[in-house]
Amino acid sequence: MAVPSVAVEQRSSILSRLSESRNALGFGFMLPAAVLLLVFLTYPLGLGVWLGFTDARIGRPGIFIGIENYQYLWSDSVFWLSVFNTLLYTISASILKFMLGLWLALILNENLPFKSFFRAVVLLPWVVPTVLSAIAFWWIYDSQFSILSWALQQMGLIDHRINFLGDPTNARASVIAANVWRGIPFVAITLLAGLQTIPQSLYEAATLDGASRWQLFRHVTLPLLTPIIAITMTFSVLFTFTDFQLIYVLTRGGPVNATHLMATLSFQRGISGGQLGEGAAIAVAMIPFLLAAILFSYFGLQRRKWQQGGGD
Amino acid sequence: MAAIKRPKRPETDEGGMGYLQSLPRRVVTVYLPLLVFIIVLLFPFYWMTITAVKPNVEMTDYANFNPFWVVHPTLQHIRYLLFETSYPGWLLNTVIISTAATFLSLLAAVLAAYAIERLRFSGARQVGLAVFLAYLVPPSILFIPLSVMVFNLGLYDTPFALILTYPTFLIPFCTWLLMGYFRSIPFELEECALIDGATRLQILTKIVLPLSVPGLISAGIFAFTLSWNEFIYALTFIQSSENKTVPVGVLTELVRSDVYEWGALMAGALIGSLPVVVLYSFFVEHYVSSMTGAVKE
């Protein structure tokens, strides 16, 4: 028994003890990620909140001015319009994405020929850079040469060109349509994965009990899919709410601010206009909404664990 | 309840109850809507492609030429794009920035995921949750403070501004994805290696990483695609034309005055999309499974 004790003594230098301690090793392994995230994510988050309380401009560090930025925004009708637009955009686009995405997922879950081909093709709008597909939409929505206007005119459905991006209502509908187009694949493919975990035997049992197709959907598919719907839609809502690229490409917030989202307004005031403090305040105003979505996601995850009977 | 707990679809179930449906009914409820979905989802790409090879005369003359087709395809827009604009430079920038950001993020994410999932240091669970929350912080609320930081650090208008900031959204995502992969590797393998006297780093590089190559590929592709598609940071932190990335360059440099060069714009959008589409088509199975896996986790 003497041999092991010698070995232990030899190995008990500080360095080797450190390399065996879980905590020290864990700290070392976490270091690169932690440094990058703390410096470029946590710190800017705090800096953003601080900037919201200052009158910083580009090229001039600001001084603390309390809640003046927020007071100004409170009485700024454009800001409230952007809040309204963001909510309208998020809610309507999310509902459409959910319904169309679920429908597409149900279709893809049928026993189709070339299943994997369809699945691959459907994901394309999600893979391609948003800005680049938005440029394609810009051309599709062109006021003079819109292919949609032309096609509808040829079919005799309309008698004059649609002014897609020049009219407030049309512009809102157009950007929502483009966002839905880009968002459907994500929702459809994740829900499809959820659908495929539902055992066929449940459908067979329900059919034997005389359930109609609607009842199958309502009482078998939907309850089992709820957890994954909750998570998918939280992500979808979060990314729609903070959307910037699509609006920046298609309308830059126009016409007359009808499509300004909080993110684009923040960019316009903060970067283009140089009022960093005010831009940061608008960005900070988005945080409560995001927190609500994250809490929703958290409880969605909880529910999923409970439904699946898993402890952790 | 066991069936719900561990849902698995037996191979023999493939057909399900499909035989109960008649063909005409399937056409109306499945094939027709699918066709409409596919047409709507793919039309913008078709329109992009056809515009990119259309001569300017045909592009705006809907009376004499059917806009859905091209009579005399031309490469003039693509030639203009490649030889008379900075487009090749933007492509190169995007490749360099995306590759560097991906490698940096993967390195950090592998170590972090291994530490959280396998070293189980005290507080590992909380750190895992923090990483997940970090993924939910959107770039739209970070770009203003980050632009101040980038400027003060002297990184403004350099590729490093993007290489160092992209990991903020790549690391959380990759870590989360890799944690799922590492979880599936049996503990016993690591215990054997520990008994044989391997260090933790050796276990990671010689046992865990070779077993999680599919996970590394998915995380790498995701990270590369996300950096390729990134827009708001690239728009804010880069000013000079020669340092821009493809999405920003196409939007800010090709759109001049009131005359839109639709052909060149569409060619730029098409060529800028090709690399991610090609990458994606090679690894589509990885992509789909890891995307759904990451969401399910």
TrEMBL record, chain A:
Highest taxon of source: Bacteria
Major location (coarse): membrane
Sequence intervals crossing the membrane: 24-43, 87-108, 120-141, 173-195, 216-241, 280-301
InterPro entries: MetI-like, MetI-like_sf
Topology versus the membrane: Multi-pass membrane protein
Pfam families cross-referenced by the UniProt entry: BPD_transp_1 (PF00528)
Domain ABC transmembrane type-1 per the UniProt entry, residue ranges: 83-299
Location in or out of the cell: Cell membrane
Keywords noted in UniProt: Cell membrane, Membrane, Transmembrane, Transmembrane helix, Transport
Protein family: Belongs to the binding-protein-dependent transport system permease family.
PANTHER family in the record: BLR7065 PROTEIN, SPERMIDINE_PUTRESCINE TRANSPORT SYSTEM PERMEASE PROTEIN
Name of the protein described by the UniProt record: Sugar ABC transporter permease
Organism: Mesorhizobium abyssinicae
Lineage: Bacteria, Pseudomonadati, Pseudomonadota, Alphaproteobacteria, Hyphomicrobiales
From TrEMBL, chain B:
Pfam families reported for this sequence: BPD_transp_1 (PF00528)
InterPro entries: BP-dep_ABC_trans_perm, MetI-like, MetI-like_sf
Annotated ranges, domain ABC transmembrane type-1: 91-283
UniProt membrane topology term: Multi-pass membrane protein
Compartment list: Cell membrane
TM annotation in the entry: 27-47, 90-115, 127-148, 160-182, 203-226, 262-283
Annotated keywords: Cell membrane, Membrane, Transmembrane, Transmembrane helix, Transport
Family of this protein: Belongs to the binding-protein-dependent transport system permease family.
Entries under PANTHER family matching the protein: INNER MEMBRANE ABC TRANSPORTER PERMEASE PROTEIN YCJP, MALTOSE TRANSPORT SYSTEM PERMEASE-RELATED
Name recorded for this polypeptide: Carbohydrate ABC transporter permease
Species name: Mesorhizobium abyssinicae
